[in-house]
From TrEMBL, chain A:
Signal peptide: 1-22
Family: Belongs to the leucine-binding protein family.
Protein name: Branched-chain amino acid ABC transporter substrate-binding protein
Keyword annotations from UniProtKB, A to Z: Amino-acid transport, Signal, Transport
GO biological process, one term: amino acid transport
Domain of life: Bacteria
Organism the protein comes from: Caldilineaceae bacterium SB0661_bin_32
CDD domains assigned to the protein according to its UniProt record, in alphabetical order: PBP1_ABC_LIVBP-like
UniProtKB/TrEMBL annotation, chain B:
Family membership: Belongs to the binding-protein-dependent transport system permease family. LivHM subfamily.
Principal place of residence: membrane
Membrane topology note: Multi-pass membrane protein
Transmembrane segments: 21-39, 59-83, 90-109, 115-136, 157-178, 198-221, 247-269, 289-310, 330-349
GO biological process, any: D-alanine transmembrane transport
A GO cellular-component term linked to this record: plasma membrane
GO MF terms, alphabetically ordered: L-isoleucine transmembrane transporter activity; L-leucine transmembrane transporter activity; L-phenylalanine transmembrane transporter activity; L-valine transmembrane transporter activity
Classification via Pfam families: BPD_transp_2 (PF02653)
Name of this protein: Branched-chain amino acid ABC transporter permease
Keywords, ordered alphabetically: Amino-acid transport, Cell inner membrane, Cell membrane, Membrane, Transmembrane, Transmembrane helix, Transport
Location in the cell: Cell membrane
Origin species: Caldilineaceae bacterium SB0661_bin_32
Length: 418, 357
């Protein structure tokens, strides 16, 4: 009897593990299907028709749970403020905008669920999101199939945009740029050549760590170890002891706030790593990082893919944010301005293609909308003047590098400082 | 049926014998493979002795936490023959409550006071965490398990998984999805440095406290009247009840003891790893369950040693086998599978009463 129960329990454990590992997103396959671009159908199936008095519904996939809930909420707030502003200016031809927010949980499986929900809802015109790269990889193939264009404010993995996906766009900058800038900063500016690379096995963190690693090698730096952890781990001591045995001068971590903070903190307790510098990336450019790292955050480096902020527009945005949510937008995390721009950009593209038919319905052709987003040129957003290219890269700005001093981020290098 | 039943039985015996031989050969092959891998890859890396000592200490701290949680699994299994899969959440509740108790203490400046004040405050925080866990553990028993005591064994198991999810998402709703960061008081920040080995104070406290708590538990079970009643119920519930043992009370006390240990583990892990959130009991819970099976579920010393062994393997394994540390969980759960195949009763064997055997 005990044996039976033990085996039964084993199956249960396996099932639970599977449930837990569902967080591991499916491989980032670029959607293979070729979109039927030519010959728009004569019927209304390729069009969204909104009856008079209806709403223009924009879906939103935000990481409200998962490893970075605070930035997820912040990004949702950014999108909500954009919708408020659009409607305050009278909407579009008398039609108001509406945000349909879903929790993408920063996770591929949940991204797929959200994608399916949007694809099944014929009133969804376009989507803003997802927040994380893994989540966006889940959304991507489904929205491509459903011909719903999306603009992600914060998914930075280079493979989010590709020649195979005509609905995929983002206003964040690709990690190809961030990885290269970080590597140049460490190897050329700091003159450090012995580097340990750690990632959290997320599409975002691991992807960025790999880009960073190859850039370091190109610059003549040496990667002493390349180690992975899991999103949600809290005890990194065994991993750090192993990394510390090689005595690297810096640890670079590709991942999110909490894990980054805990690694920075536990490094100070690891023989061989007391003097080692620590650098992490935009996923850790948050208050949560400072809180999780505590005193160990001092002197650590964080890079961020920043927009070319126009101060006047941002001051207005910050005031509205403060008024509506009672916190400063920087309190919860980065990317709120990208999120605001993402929604405004979608709205601008919709305005370019929408028309009112004889019976007073607003008609939006899906294929026209997909190409309209790519034709956005000189759109004035919070993150600068946005221009989308043929691949869906709409990001403006550059990579900034910050150092933590007296408990706050101080820019030490990068975009806006030259 | 052409062959006679006798023949079929003989064939079955042969089949069993050859299966046994096969598993033995497989076991030997795995052991040889591991030894070969350790000697050719792990040791060839040339890590200094201080490295292995550091890793072993990391493993003992981890093992101490697993042991406290594993005891809860094993105690409940010993008495009810059910796996309380919500036990990891009981630990998490202890950690979350400890966080708020710590905030309360910090707001009043107790954590900056002279050291006796800090020590008393820390003990109080741990006690509050344990009390919260006990409350949840006893409530679970009353609401989720007691009504199902006469049901088939699978039913309370499913109820336990439901309770686990219920607790996780209740905490998510009430306390939010963001992690809560423990701020260590200066007294227990940092650690001891012995040459190239660093022992964080929190790690040392976890190990020593877990040993003390386990000794206390062992004393309760072996030397008190209550412990005798627990052993009697584990041996044979109905006979124990005929002898005047209040079975319900014993079961409640068992849940209280297990939950108190888990609560203590939750608070100490909070101080050690400094982050707790709604799902931070899930993986440690599974690990502790693995540890309990490793030592022989239902066997109290087995759970303690199983947990320490699991902690050590998790910390040392990846370096010794020369594989990335991200596979530490794979090593732990592979151990579970291997133990279930080769020694289903665990390394130390389940202590079987006649009724169970």
């Amino acid at each position: 009897m005990p044996k039976k129960l033990a085996i039964l329990s084993l199956f249960l454990v396996a099932a639970l593990m599977l449930a837990a590992c569902a967080a591991a997103p499916p491989a980032a396959e670029a959607p293979a299907e070729e979109a039927p671009m030519e010959e728009a159908p004569a019927d209304m199936s390729g069009k969204v028709v909104i009856a008079s008095g209806g709403m223009i519904r924009i879906g939103g996939s935000f990481a409200l749970t998962g490893p970075i809930p605070d930035p997820g909420l912040n990004i949702r707030h950014g999108a909500e403020l954009a919708i408020d502003d659009l409607n305050a200016m009278g909407g579009l031809e008398g039609f108001m905008f509406e945000l349909v927010a879903e929790d993408g949980a920063c996770d591929g499986t949940q991204g797929t669920n959200v994608g399916n929900k949007f694809a099944a809802d014929e009133t969804i015109v376009a989507v803003t999101g997802g927040t994380c790269s893994g989540e966006t990889f889940g959304l991507m193939p489904i929205l491509q199939e459903a011909r719903i264009p999306f603009v992600s404010p914060s998914a930075t993995n280079p493979d989010i945009t590709s020649a195979d996906c005509d609905v995929c766009n983002r206003v964040a900058l690709s990690d190809a740029l961030q990885g290269a800038t970080d590597a140049a900063f460490i190897v050329s500016d700091l003159g450090i050549t012995s580097i340990a690379v750690v990632h959290d096995n997320s599409d975002y963190g691991k992807g960025l760590a790999e880009i960073f690693q190859s850039n370091v090698m190109d610059l003549g730096g040496e990667v002493s170890s390349f180690e992975g952890v899991q999103v949600g781990d809290t005890d990194f001591r065994a991993m750090l002891a192993k990394v510390g045995a090689d005595g690297p001068q810096v640890i670079f971590f590709g991942g999110y706030s909490t894990e980054a903070g805990l690694i920075a903190q536990q490094m100070t307790e690891t023989p061989g790593l007391e003097e080692t510098a620590f650098m992490s990336v935009d996923g850790a450019y948050t208050q949560q990082y400072l809180e999780a790292a505590g005193g160990a955050a001092e002197g650590t480096y964080i890079s961020f893919v920043a927009g070319a902020d126009s101060e006047e527009m941002n001051a207005d945005f910050d005031a509205k944010y403060m008024e509506k949510y009672g916190v400063s937008p920087d309190e919860l995390g980065p990317f709120h301005s990208q999120s605001y721009d993402s929604v405004k950009l979608i709205a601008a593209a919709i305005a370019a293609v929408a028309s009112v038919d004889d019976s007073g319905n607003l008609v939006i052709d899906r294929e026209e909308l997909i190409s309209a987003i790519r034709s956005v040129d000189a759109f004035e957003g919070l993150t600068g003047t946005i221009k989308c290219d043929g691949m869906g890269e709409c990001g403006a700005g550059g990579v900034q590098i910050f150092q933590v001093m007296d408990g706050s981020f101080n820019q030490v290098s990068g975009f806006g400082m030259e | 049926m052409t062959s006679s039943p006798v023949k079929a039985q003989a064939a079955g015996r042969d089949g069993r014998a050859s299966l046994k031989q096969f598993t033995r050969a497989l076991g030997a092959a795995i052991v040889v493979l591991v030894i070969w891998r350790v000697t050719t890859v792990g040791l060839a890396e040339g890590y200094p002795a201080s490295f292995w000592i550091s890793q072993a200490l990391n493993g003992l701290v981890l093992g101490g936490v697993y042991a406290l949680v594993a005891l809860g699994y094993t105690l409940v299994y010993g008495i009810l023959f059910m796996i309380n899969f919500a036990h990891g959440e009981v630990m998490m509740i202890g950690g979350i409550t400890g966080f708020f108790a710590l905030q309360f203490a910090q707001a009043r400046g107790w954590m900056e006071g002279p050291w006796p004040v800090v020590v008393v405050a820390l003990l109080l925080i741990m006690f509050i965490g344990m009390a919260a866990s006990v409350l949840i553990g006893v409530t679970l028993e009353r609401l989720a398990y007691r009504p199902l005591r006469q049901a088939p064994r699978l039913v309370p198991l499913i109820s336990a998984i439901g309770a686990s999810l219920f607790l996780q998402y209740s905490v998510l709703l009430i306390f939010g999805v963001s992690p809560h960061s423990y701020r260590k008081p200066a007294l227990i920040s940092g650690g001891l440095r012995l040459g190239d080995v660093f022992i964080p104070y929190t790690g040392a406290i976890i190990f020593i406290t877990s040993i003390l708590l386990m000794l206390a538990l062992y004393f309760i079970i072996q030397r008190t009247k209550l412990g005798r009643a627990m052993r009697a119920v584990a041996e044979d519930r109905s006979t124990a009840s005929l002898m005047g043992v209040d079975v319900n009370a014993v079961i409640v006390v068992t849940f209280m003891l297990g939950s108190a240990l888990a609560g203590a583990a939750g608070v100490m892990l909070g101080f050690h790893n400094t982050v707790v959130k709604f799902n931070s009991g899930f993986i440690p819970g599974l690990k502790a369950f693995t540890a309990a099976v490793l030592g022989g579920i239902g066997n109290i010393p087995g759970a303690m040693f199983g947990a320490l062994i699991l902690g050590l393997i998790e910390a040392i394994g990846p370096s010794a086998l020369g594989i990335p540390t991200e596979y530490k969980d794979v090593i732990a759960f592979t151990m579970l599978v291997l133990i279930l195949i080769f020694r289903p009763t665990g390394l130390f064997g389940e202590v079987l009463s006649e009724k169970k055997a």
